[in-house]
Design brief:
Subcellular location: Secreted, Cell wall
Helix content: 25-40%
Number of helices: 15
Largest sheet: 10 strands, mixed
EC number: 3.1.1.-
Number of strands: 14
Order of helices and strands: HHHHHEEEHEEEEHEHEHHEHHHEHEEHE
Number of domains: 2
GO biological process, one term: cell wall organization
Distance between the termini: 13 Å
CATH topology of the largest domain: Rossmann fold
Protein name: Pectin acetylesterase
Main location: secreted
Amino acid sequence: MDRFCCYIGASLPCYALVKYTSSRDFPIDRLDLASTTRSIETMVKTRVGAVRPWALLALALLLIAGSCVEAADEQAANGGGRRRRTHRRSAAAVADMMVPITFLNASVEKGAVCMDGTPAAYHLDPGSGAGSKSWIVNLEGGGWCNNARTCRFRTRTHHGSSNFMERQIAFTGIMSASPAENPDFYNWNRVKIRYCDSASFAGDTFDKGTGLYFRGQRIWEEAIQHLLSIGMASADRALLTGCSAGGLAAILHCDQFGAFFAGRSTTVKCLADAGLFLDAVDVSGGRSLRSYYGDIVAMQGVAPNLPPTCTDHLDATSCFFPQNIIDSIKTPIFLLNAAYDVWQIEESLAPSKADPSRAWRACKFNRSACNASQINFLQGFRDQMVASVRGFSGSKSNGLFINSCFAHCQSELPATWNGTPAIQNKRIAKSVGDWYFGRAEVKAIDCPYPCDNTCRNII
């Protein structure tokens, strides 16, 4: 994404693309120029009447960027022997990082399917050496859908149908095979389970009216059983991870993951990145995210699959919020979150419906445009996040890293996983590794904005 912004040379159109792709559930955490262009082109052809003007501008700029990238690559390839060799080495390195897809065809008869009925899928990069018996299982993120219109739309993307999933994807950050980028987990078996159910792998119903399958729970169970059958059952270490909607899924399924290894000597832990979605009051005084989550839980049959330690005393919608779950999780878990989570700022605190006067329009896309009152509101959100983990942090087995950045998802990006963001000079990768391997207790909560100059802020 940094490279793309550099080619465009304009931060607003670039952020418009990021905003568009993230809000429409395109994979900006591993933005592939060609595949994302195809996805947006498909969307434009099918929903041109609903596309915002800046989205069309973003598409045009993306196509220009693609041409610039191709021209730059061609120039590098024709710019002398030394440059050609560098280009070839870079291309080979990229090819080495690409991990092929595997479809769970045998699980279709058990109902473990995407929303359109296509098979669920995963990517596996096998471990080696000392890591050959250790496993990371990553649950892909990508938002949710809460009504027939938005869910139907997702069936025309990789978040609702495996027909649209990339056949190869790059593993970066905590999923990287590079010891420099990912020193503690680079040689583990690393798996990404693709997300195509739209309820954080927790729904289990079929909607006769739309013909859509909401089978996230079955995908989760079948994928794990399959991985156990191909070697994970003998794992000495296992780590369940996820980002955003996948981070929420890692929280919801953490104890279930641990139960798969019951009676074994496996060290089992979980990591939830950007999954701490709060039941917060929005700028209008309402609760936009609670309303949204309520629709998801009801439409997709989520309630029976939520942790009973929560549903025995709270309603199902409340139990879709991590703040009501984390204190009762028995399996050790690490929460990684930005205190000023940009997705929550844009979609939960200041969504368009809660801000009809557009008073928050500039602020939510550019923190430097926030006035004192708005900054104070955001500080209140941070305070709520810190308060929500107070009981959780009391457990010695749990880990915590809440930095004062305007970001969303930091474990799968090289620039944030083992890059600049740090609390008390300790980076995210080091913090997670120290916690997992028991080298140190990690309970890191950053000072309030704007004290942290190590951030890789999105806005």
